[in-house]
Specification:
The structure is a single chain. This protein has 287 residues and is of the alpha+beta class. The chain has two domains: 116 residues, Aminotransferase class 4, branched-chain amino acid transferase, N-terminal domain (D-amino Acid Aminotransferase, Chain A, domain 1); 150 residues, D-amino Acid Aminotransferase, Chain A, domain 2, CATH 3.20.10.10. Helix content is 26%, strand content 27%. The protein contains seven helices and 15 strands. Strands 7, 8, 9, 10, 11, 12, 13, 14 and 15 form a nine-stranded mixed beta sheet that branches. A six-stranded antiparallel beta sheet has the order 2-1-6-5-3-4. The longest helix has 14 residues. It is globular. Bound molecules: 4'-deoxy-4'-aminopyridoxal-5'-phosphate (PMP). The site of 4'-deoxy-4'-aminopyridoxal-5'-phosphate (PMP) has 14 residues, from helix 5 and strand 13.
């Protein structure tokens, strides 16, 4: 079966899909992206993801390449063509193609739109054995709230984590607080059962999974607090976990080689994952 990509108005064979060498995304990382999870042929949290794309575009003054409705259609068409049941849709919008100059093009250019899909294994309620994380200095810029394709600090942090045998990097700011993961949000459960994740501001990406889990935590009447927390506090936590569109709720059982709590997956992460999977099962399947 051919795998398709969508590139500026056309569905093309993924192997032949390409963009212009003077695309500002390629040359200057002048673009934004979104990743929407797909489970059992259903898009998870489509509306909030598209709202966040809209926000990222507005913050960078990049126009919408197609209407919001048309984007919804393209997402579904690509899912159908690629028979996507479990995985993700990646979409990227860049400022477009123009002669290289740091400043915005002075003549109007059309923003470039690319969509691809990726199959992954079916994620269920079982969180698995948990993952290890490694702390890394957060060397990113001061607008981490914008989901830009400029991900080099995240790439380097993730690579350092992987080279040490960890799955994710937890980024530490200059006050010793964990901001978030390289591609996930970071959460802990304190010894007195407070569920903590950092507040959303310019220091982190407002994860869509994080937002949904916040609602779930409310429904479950958990004691939930949004505040900064230090690496020291995380090391003493009862539980820790990460959230993202592609990892759902994944327990963290080791930080910098040391066990979190008893080193096993805890009840809070287990319960929140169950509820998240229940939420992800709602809605109409596309494929
Ligand atoms: N933080 C960063 C830096 C990310 O790249 C991601 C993944 N998009 C997240 C958090 C989690 O966001 P979401 O739940 O929307 O996938």
């Amino acid at each position: 079966m051919a795998r398709y990509a969508y590139v500026n108005g056309r569905y093309v064979d993924h192997r032949d899909a390409s963009v212009h060498i003077e695309d500002r995304g390629y040359q200057l990382a002048d673009g934004v992206y979104e990743v929407v999870g797909v489970r059992d042929g259903k898009l998870i949290d489509e509306g909030p993801h598209i709202d966040r794309l809209d926000r990222s575009l507005r913050e960078l003054r990049i126009g919408w390449p197609v209407s919001r409705q048309a984007l919804g259609f393209v997402m579904r068409e690509l899912m159908r063509r690629n028979r996507l049941r479990d995985g993700l849709i990646y979409m990227q919008v860049t400022r477009g193609v123009a002669r290289r100059d740091h400043a915005f093009p002075t003549t109007p250019v059309k923003p470039a739109l690319v969509l691809t899909t990726k199959n992954t294994k079916h994620l269920g309620v079982d969180p698995g054995p948990g993952v290890a994380v490694k702390s890394q200095p957060d060397i990113r810029w001061e607008r981490c709230d914008i989901k830009t394709v400029a991900l080099l600090p995240n790439v380097l942090a993730k690579q350092a984590a992987r080279e040490s045998g960890a799955y994710e990097a937890w980024l530490i700011d200059d006050k010793g607080c964990i901001t978030e993961g390289a591609s996930t949000n970071a959460w802990i459960v304190t010894p007195d059962n407070e569920l903590v994740t950092r507040q959303t501001d310019n220091g982190i990406l407002a994860g869509i999974t994080r937002g949904t889990l916040k609602k779930i935590a409310g429904d479950l009447q958990l004691r939930f607090v949004e505040r900064p927390f230090t690496l020291t506090e995380a090391r003493k936590a009862k539980e820790a976990f990460i959230t993202s569109a592609t990892s759902f709720v994944t327990p963290v059982v080791k930080i910098d080689g040391e066990a979190v709590g008893d080193g096993k997956v805890g009840p809070t992460a287990r319960r929140l994952r169950e509820e998240y999977v229940r939420f992800a099962s709602e809605g109409e399947a596309v494929t």
